[in-house]
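tmp note - POC1 centriolar protein homolog A
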Amino acid sequence: EDPSLERHFKGHRDAVTSVDFSLNKKQLASGSMDSCLMIWSMRPQMRAYRFVGHKDAVMCVQFSPSGHLVASGSRDKTVRLWVPSVKGESTVFKAHTATVRSVHFSSDGQSLVTASDDKTVKVWTVHRQKFLFSLSQHINWVRCARFSPDGRLIVSASDDKTVKLWDKTSRECIHSFCEHGGFVNHVDFHPSGTCIAAAGTDNTVKVWDVRMNRLLQHYQGNAVVNSLSFHPSGNYLVTASNDSTLKILDLLEGRLLYTLHGHQGPATCVAFSRAGDLFASGGSDEQVMVWKTNFDAADYGDVLKTQKSGTSVDGTHHTLQSEMDCGVHLKKTKTQDSGRNHVQREEETSLANTLEHIMGQLDVLTQTVSILEQRLTLTEDKLKECLENQQKIIQNKTS
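out:
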């Protein structure tokens, strides 16, 4: 079955810049040039939340891994952390001196990495909301920065036409990939953490191995590629382009699978849900679209069959399979053990859910505390002002 359009969200008043699903797929966040952040409910008849706070275009949004926070970056040079509820309260991070283009949580939800037109990449702690350090070797705007799945590496993409790989601990740039012929708009890690994919204004998508630092795949399109997202299986990549199309690439066979037309005008952003059964896209037509992936169920079966029998479609398919450590191997072993581990898996799931819940509660507590701190500071400032004014009045009287 081909991917199909599932839902259509209208409410933004300018180009949509960024989309992201929450962990449970109940919510979808989007940012827009209209300075608003929208949280859409995937359940029918549930109203959307519009969060107002940024003073200028919202360039990027992302849910925290637990789904209890949303981070956004804006042209107003700030990063905000929101609690996605009716109140829509937020706290502000200030350290960049220009537009913030990208926000990304580490997979443990403890750190945030941001990228900006001030040519730096910055890392923050989420709970203390403290700025930790800057990575500053790019010589032009930085459009995108992402943590690796294990949180040890950071990758960044810039208008200086390079993609840089950083070691988070040593804060050193380990490697610069310089093969792009134009600005690099977007970059992300393959779910295995062994590869990265980058999209650029030279109409290409490139996939590199980060262990060998060599180019694995190169897809030549005929329009600027604005955004990309890996399917959680690691076997597919979806892209959003200026020619208004979304394209789904089959990474195992190194070919284009689908071209989807839905947006009028440039498709600006795209993201798979955490389970991979849906993906969302946004465009300069102010629309947010949600698509049913459809292709994975059938394709997983086929991929598993070819894996088990050891046949490969062609040589390249096979080498890439081993180079990319795709999630297929995991899938295969899981199905064989499923009977034996069913109970154990259920226990693990409920434990994971409990932990998830505790983490979420912590997130909310941290947010509440920091909002209270902000209010306290405001009150203290007001108090100080009053005292100073009184002082002045007394001085005037005595003089």
